[in-house]
Specification:
The chain contains 14 helices and 4 strands. With 315 residues, the chain is mainly α. The protein has 2 domains: 1-145, no CATH class; 147-290, Nucleotidyltransferases  domain 2 (Four Helix Bundle (Hemerythrin (Met), subunit A), Up-down Bundle). A hairpin with a 5-residue loop joins strand 1 and strand 2. Helix 10 packs parallel to helix 11.
Length: 315
């Protein structure tokens, strides 16, 4: 796991990325951590039984990843022998640590929870951040800054959900990395990975794992994916629409810059990530529409006349 504050260390250091979590939101964060905490008994190699909780694991993970022996300064009056020492240390960290490290706590807690409990925790955290007008949301264990509520809810998050479907895990990983690079200010890498994500979707749809974007788009036009369009329109549509993102990649972040190095400003990277989300959503929805429905199980054979369910019982 790469913590938020570690992933964006340079951008946070030079203040090109700013995170602010209010005192009230820190309080709500701690309340949600407590509400979604759970504990259980474990036994070590010496048969010693002890109690462990989600918050214990979060505190231990943070210390390990920060390279610290404690989350609190030596001046804090916490008795290390107290059963509540870990909880008090983590509470202090949520209340007093730099804002970026509050996101670290949430990220680790989400990682320790599983299934519906994890989903419920993430919904509660995102709701709290929305209520307190904090422009950060967590999705798939990663925090993203939302500049547009509509884009986040209806385009970016929707694309990430579709990319999680079977067969698109590589594209999903590249899309998440593109969003992380955008957040951290790595504009060229954001464009590169946004394009790679869409290309990975095309590779799944065409079955071609080696060709470049131009070839993949031409192959797509020859499949049933664009069957709703007249045959003479498919190639033109595919090349005119789907190659816009690879063109951005080539001109701004790839091999098309020539001798002049292009300084790519953030709006271009945002456009690339948003295009990757919209185009990938479009492509995956087409792909799913062309897949045959899963086979339905055959209904049980009807009982023959005179037979009964009791006839099957071997005793």
């Amino acid at each position: 796991m790469k913590l938020f504050s570690t992933r964006h260390k340079k951008a946070l250091s030079d203040r090109s990325l700013k995170v602010s979590v209010s005192e009230r939101l820190r309080g709500r964060t701690w309340a949600e951590l407590l509400a979604h905490n759970e504990s259980w008994d474990e036994t070590d190699d010496t048969n010693w039984n002890y109690r462990v909780s989600i918050l214990d694991l979060v505190e231990g993970t943070l210390m390990r990843l920060y390279g610290k022996e404690t989350l609190v300064p030596a001046s804090m009056p916490v008795d290390p022998e107290s059963p509540e020492a870990k909880r008090e240390a983590l509470k202090w960290h949520v209340q007093m640590a730099p804002s970026a490290e509050v996101l670290d706590v949430i990220q680790v807690a989400a990682d320790k929870l599983e299934g519906e409990k994890r989903d419920a925790f993430i919904r509660a955290i995102n709701s709290a951040f929305e209520d307190e007008s904090c422009p950060w949301r967590i999705s798939d264990g990663t925090f993203f800054k939302i500049d547009s509520e509509f884009l986040e809810k209806h385009v970016l998050s929707g694309a990430q959900h579709l990319l999680s479907k079977e067969g698109f895990s590589g594209a999903q990983e590249e899309f998440v990395e593109a969003r992380n690079d955008l957040t951290g200010g790595d504009t060229k890498d954001a464009i590169l990975k946004a394009c790679k994500s869409m290309e990975s979707v095309l590779k799944v749809m065409t079955g071609d794992q080696v060709s470049n974007a131009s070839v993949l788009v031409r192959k797509l036009a020859q499949t049933d994916a664009l069957r709703d369009l007249p045959p003479d329109m498919r190639a033109g549509f595919a090349e005119g629409v789907l190659l816009c993102l690879p063109t951005m990649r080539n001109k701004l972040a790839g091999h098309g810059q020539g001798s002049q190095v292009v300084v790519v400003q953030k709006p271009y990277a945002k456009l690339a990530v948003n295009l990757a989300a919209s185009l990938s959503t479009f492509l995956i929805e087409l792909h799913l529409a062309t897949q045959p429905p899963p086979p339905q199980p055959e209904p049980p054979a009807p009982l023959t006349q005179g037979a009964s369910l009791d006839d099957e019982i071997p005793f």
